[in-house]
Amino acid sequence: MNRGFYTIMAAQFLSSLADNALLIAAIALLASIGAPEWMTPLLKLFFVVSYVLLAAWVGLFADSMPKGRVMFLTNFLKACGCLLMLFGGHPLLAYAIVGVGAAAYSPAKYGILTELLPPEKLVVANGWIEGLTVGSIILGVVLGGVLIKPEVAQPILNVFGLEAIGLHTYAEGAIFAIAFVYLAASVVNLAIPDTGVRYPKQKLDPIDSIRSFMSSCRLLWHDRLGQISLSVTTLFWGAGAVLQFLVLKWCDHALGMDLSQGAVMQAVVSLGIAIGAVLAAAKVPLKRSLSVLPMGICMGALVTLTAYFTKDMAPAGGLGLFGFEISWAVLLAAFVMVLVGICAGFFVVPMNALLQHRGHVLMSAGRSIAVQNFNENLSILVMLGVYSLLILFDLSVPATMVIFGLFVMTSMGLVIWKHRRNQAEYDSTHLIGEEKRH
Asked: What top-level branch of life does the organism fall under (predicted)?
């Protein structure tokens, strides 16, 4: 990998670190202003919705200038969202502004990989990016939790004299600090090299942009390789969003864990994803990316098999680690969640790389990532909506897990069947690694 790639990694780490720290600080800010509890989950909705609503334009924007400059501007917009949150803007609206920045940032972040690196290095690059992103998610949540602590937030308020400009709460002190992380990411973005790739200027007319975007969607969904990789990543991100909440409820139901302890189990799943991503980067070349599809079935099977597990099924006692006593039930559950994460990371990284490659060949880097983001985040909104309905109907946690696991297994089985049918009609695997035609 060249130096430009490592610069991209550094910028991505800082940006993702701030995104996840800001979520914790925004939750604390809602609590400090006495907002109703139902507003808290809406933070994620307001953040994600930009990926869907702006999908027709963010790809065009990412291709309109060097992608390092795009990443600089979008991180600066995120910092502005923090300032809006501090100075009078409603947290949901301000977090939506940050979501706009994130939606425009993503096509540039992934699109530049296809411009900077040859196809055979995309799996390795995605493995590092995904592993680093997972690490930033874990550290970002920890950073957000640390910054809202009184012993940390109060010195920030004092040192910068924030109380003199009307900022008094610990959450506001944390958000002020997080804005500087976004600014640091923006500075690193300036060091990203210009790849020299230029695309024909596109019109930003609303009607033409939507038509062009829908044409890009059809092109990728009709491509024999694109439709398989896009199906998998769309399923993964929708299922991952549900799993994020489902793990918390399962920890409460099966292990008697509170919210903070369940959040640690979320981090365990993320650790597994990072391990799977690194393994995929080391073991799976782009040419063999489709060989990982059965891992999706394994992921669904593991979730299904653990649905009715409870702490009473594990032996009594536990293991002492760093002065803490951890029960065998929790250790067993953590082991299974790591396996779930490994399966997820191992199959999604090669699929991401294949999808980026095919999108770059068929259209442009920015437009293809925008199509990917649209489908994946639409899946998140739909699957979270379905999950909310299951909760509304008071379905038990084990039953919900079984439905979730069987859905993942069935969906991945259908994807594998579709791929084999495609290959029986026409061998498209020789197209993997093909250079851009136009």
From this structure: Bacteria
pTM of the full structure: 0.69
Q: Tell me the DSSP string of 226-258.
A: HHHHHHHHHHHHHHHHHHHHHHHHHIIIII---
From 218-232, 328-342, 352-366, the region with the lowest mean pLDDT: 352-366
Name the DSSP letter for residue 169.
S
Q: Which residues pair with 325 in a beta bridge?
A: 320
Which residues, at least 6 apart from 279, have a Cβ–Cβ distance to it below 8 Å?
Answer: 342, 345, 346
Residues 101, 90, 84: CA angle, nearest 5 degrees: 50
| Contact assessment for residue 28 and residue 43, using Cβ atoms and an 8 Å cutoff | no
**In degrees rounded to 5, what are phi and psi of residue 65?**
-155, 170
Asked whether 70 and 21 are in contact (CB, 8 A), the reply is no
Of the candidate ranges 8-17, 239-248, 407-416, the one whose mean pLDDT is the lowest: 239-248
pLDDT (tens digit per residue) in 282-320:
888 777 778 888 888 998 899 898 888 888 777 777 676
Of the two residues 22 and 61, the one the predictor is more confident about is 22
Q: Following DSSP, what letter does each residue of 261-280 receive, concatenated?
A: HHHHHHHHHHHHHHHHHHHH
320 three-class SS: strand
The Cβ of residue 315 has, within 10 Å, a number of other Cβ atoms equal to: 9
Per the DSSP assignment, residues forming a β-bridge with 267 are none
Q: In sequence order, what are the residues at sequence separation of 6 or more whose Cβ sits closer than 8 angstroms to the Cβ of residue 200?
A: none
pLDDT digits (tens, 9 = 90+) for 343-376: 888 888 788 777 777 776 777 656 777 788 788 8
Domains and CATH numbers, the chain: 1-193 (1.20.1250.20), 214-427+433-437 (1.20.1250.20)
Tell me the backbone φ, ψ of residue 383, rounded to 5 degrees. -70, -35
Name the residue with higher pLDDT: 206 or 104: 104
User: Locate tokens 């991180």: which residue?
Assistant: 75
Q: How far apart are CA 362 and CA 294, in angstroms?
A: 27
Which is more confidently placed, 7 or 127? 7
Buried b (16+ CB within 10 A) or exposed e, 278-305: bbbbeebbbeebbebbebbbbbbbbbbe
Q: Nearest CA to 268 among 137, 357, 179?
A: 137
Which of helix, strand or coil describes residue 322?
coil
What percentage of the chain's residues is helix, strand, coil (to nearest 5)?
Answer: 80, 0, 20
**Any idea what the Cα angle at residue 402 is, between residues 237 and 291, rounded to 5°?**
50
